[in-house]
Amino acid sequence: MTALTLSTAGAATLRADALVVGVAKGAGSKSGDLVLAPGAEAVDKAFDGKLATVLKALGAAGAEGEVTKLPAPAGLKVPVVIAVGLGSVPEKDEAYDAEALRKAAGSAARALNGSKKAGFALPIESVEDAGAIAEGALLGAYAFTAYQGGENKLAPKDKKNGNGPKQPLAEVALLGTKPRDKAFKAAADRALAIVEEINRARDLINTPPNDLYPESFAAVATAAGKEHGIKVQVLDEKALVKGGFGGLLGVGQGSTHGPRLVKLAYTHPKAEKTLALVGKGITYDSGGISLKPAGHNETMKCDMSGAAAVFAAVVAAARLGLQVNVTGWLALAENMPSGNATRPGDVLRMYSGKTVEVLNTDAEGRLVLADALTRASEENPDAIVDVATLTGAMVLALGNRTFGIMANDDAFRTSIHEIAEEVGEASWPMPLPADLRKGMDSPTADIANMGERMGGGLVAGLFLQEFVGEGIAWAHLDIAGPAFHEGAPYGYTPKGGTGSAIRTLVKLAERTAAGDLG
């Protein structure tokens, strides 16, 4: 994990591999000009006041995420200066947007793979700015290299097969902060704790399914619980059978890797509220008997992203010592076709006692979540939030970068949407139209796991709502779009697992601890 320091050095005296400064696009009468952001003064002085001119000659325009590298002049202790775009310059008397700072820092950190240390002299006008830059830099300084750079056994014994992958930037030095100020130190500590857990979740999402399956995921959660004082309970197949968890068992019965339900409980002695988080943890989704076609299953190791998000959020809450009880439920199963797999037309008896006719075994996430939601409801938390890569329909509706929010309480849904926007996670509130419920009527069971094709993401939310305890505020986050990024990296978003919704869940826990649960 990349180290984070609050540096007392100035931009001109810092010794590092590179120094990062911000540039922006001019507005109004200065439209088309390149504007140096606060923090770049010392670097501009070293360039005899011509830094903007040099950057513009190199093609820099200040666009969001744009990275321009240039050799440093004699007046600096670093060999390289990196100018990163912040987008449009803010209006008069306004500061740079936190998400713009976060993305810029992430872009710069990605450009510094293989470096030991870099100073970040981006504009800081508040503690929140420092936290955003720290988050962005640490999130950008991520690479999943666990399966790369192995030794070639056919090569001579004293040679490696290539040089291996570049490692992420080793140290982020934040300039322009107040290292001895408790607020700045707290912001840095918070950023480090949250990002370390996001990156652990990314690692889990990126881990191949032959190494990550319900039992091994549960082992990771158990180890983290011991490390951070979180009580962990794992229900294996025997316990699930005894408890009547028909959804988890039905989805997992086609695999040689049996299902698990993992409970992580972080408690605070002064907590007045309890937040329950439920995560879909399909460690690999083949679609089961309703097999996915070629081209749709190659990335299905990511179908446990919801469980990874819940796991990370609970551990982060513990590390931050939040004054709230946070319980995480990881509904873990592997959805495989075999002679023992659940068939379309089978009826499962869920943990709630409801029966479900399975019309499509590829609509399995809602089945494992249903059991976990019922179990979470038994503890009567103040609110439940489930997180899942649940439907392709949500991707069609909102694209690859935005998750949908459904809820049984409009105010709660609004609160989560506002929190997500605040932390820089794109989301959108979605309805739960009552008329779509009829499409899940079954002549055989209490409900079917499929309904109308149109509005499929909303149908899935309506199904889950059936398993939430009465009187409990509940929200459903469908992260099918942003959970796994298949394109080129951008900002602080890497290729592969992203850790979507974790920052939203942590901020929700912080708000709940402060007595501000919507």
Write a short abstract of this structure:
This protein has helices spanning 41-46, 51-57, 98-111, 127-140, 182-206, 214-228, 237-243, 246-252, 305-320, 365-377, 392-398, 410-423, 456-465, 502-513; strands at 3-6, 18-25, 34-36, 67-71, 80-88, 117-121, 171-174, 231-235, 260-266, 274-285, 325-335, 347-349, 355-357, 383-388, 403-407, 427-429, 447-448, 473-478, 484-485, 496-497. The chain is of the alpha/beta class and 518 residues long. α4 (127-140) runs parallel beside α5, α6 (214-228) runs parallel beside α9 and α9 (305-320) runs parallel beside α14.
Q: What would your notes on this structure say?
A:
- This protein is α/β, with parallel strands linked by helices.
- It is built from 14 helices and 20 strands.
- The strands form 4 sheets. An 8-stranded mixed β-sheet has the order 8-9-11-10-14-18-15-16, with helices on both faces. Strands 1, 2, 3, 4, 5, 6 and 7 form a 7-stranded mixed β-sheet that branches.
- The radius of gyration is 24 Å and the shape is elongated.
- The two termini are 34 Å apart.
List the main descriptive attributes of the protein structure presented here:
single chain, 518 residues, alpha/beta, eight-stranded mixed β-sheet, seven-stranded mixed β-sheet, 14 helices
Topology, pairings included?
Layout: E1 3-6, E2 18-25, E3 34-36, H1 41-46, H2 51-57, E4 67-71, E5 80-88, H3 98-111, E6 117-121, H4 127-140, E7 171-174, H5 182-206, H6 214-228, E8 231-235, H7 237-243, H8 246-252, E9 260-266, E10 274-285, H9 305-320, E11 325-335, E12 347-349, E13 355-357, H10 365-377, E14 383-388, H11 392-398, E15 403-407, H12 410-423, E16 427-429, E17 447-448, H13 456-465, E18 473-478, E19 484-485, E20 496-497, H14 502-513
Parallel strand pairs: 1-7, 2-5, 2-6, 6-7, 10-11, 10-14, 13-17, 14-18, 15-16
Antiparallel strand pairs: 2-3, 4-5, 8-9, 9-11, 12-13, 15-18, 19-20
Helix pairs in contact: 3-4, 4-5, 5-9, 6-9, 8-10, 9-14, 12-14
